[in-house]
Amino acid sequence: MKLVKTIAKIVVFVGVWAAAFYAASYFAVPWLEYRDAAPATVEVCRGALALLIAAVIACLAILIFDGRKGFPKLVKRPLRDALLGLFAGAFWVGVTFLLFTITDSIFPAGTSWPDFVSLWALAVLLNVLTQELILRGFVYTAVARNYGAAAAIAVSSLVSLLAQGDAFENGAVAVIFAVSAAALYGVMRQYTGGLLAPVITHLIWNLVGGLAFGLVDLGGQFPKIFQEDISGEDIISGGSAGFEGSVLSIIVCILLIDFVILLGDGAKSREDD
Predict the structure, then answer these.
(1) 6, part of any domain
(2) End-to-end alpha carbon distance in the chain
(3) By percentage, how much of the chain surpasses pLDDT 70?
């Protein structure tokens, strides 16, 4: 019975996520485009509406399933969690970009500053918040309550992978990257006990890797500020998938996973002493 209930929760949360996205895309977006709204405005409204719908319906589902005790914690130690998120995001993007440069996998190809760049950044934030709220918030909490953190990380990572169909289209390396990235966010969720650190790390990865350099697929019609040409073997350069199809990104991600696990082990040891 416990397993059935947990599976039902996951199905509901993922269904809510999908329904919220499609509702925002097929109802709000056509109206905005008819009104000749700027593309950045369309993406912000899509993201805001999807986040609102997903959060409201998922919260109602939690109240039905578990009452207030089923809600995920958002922040436990704000300063620590923010610093960890900032460090992990900067390290991940920075070291990966450095490795791409050293291996001659990318070359500068100009700059194109888009209109409404702040709105594009807000749209990225809203998308990250929705993903993390559903995956590391509701799905993680539903599994962790009955089966522990390891199972919660595994299940939320699997759901994340299945939700990203592009990973399968881009090959095995992209699939491994998607799992590794989701595992990193999950490990950060487990260590910090909240969503702030994974949200910040995920946001930096998408903002810098995606909006700034176009080397992370953001979907939709998101622009990129700095144009980069990709060259070399796909396993190193990622090919059309960019950062998300490269073993270099995976290596850096695994290093960060190990780092967060060591932080958790160290904190546990201090508590035992």
Answers:
(1) no
(2) 39
(3) 92
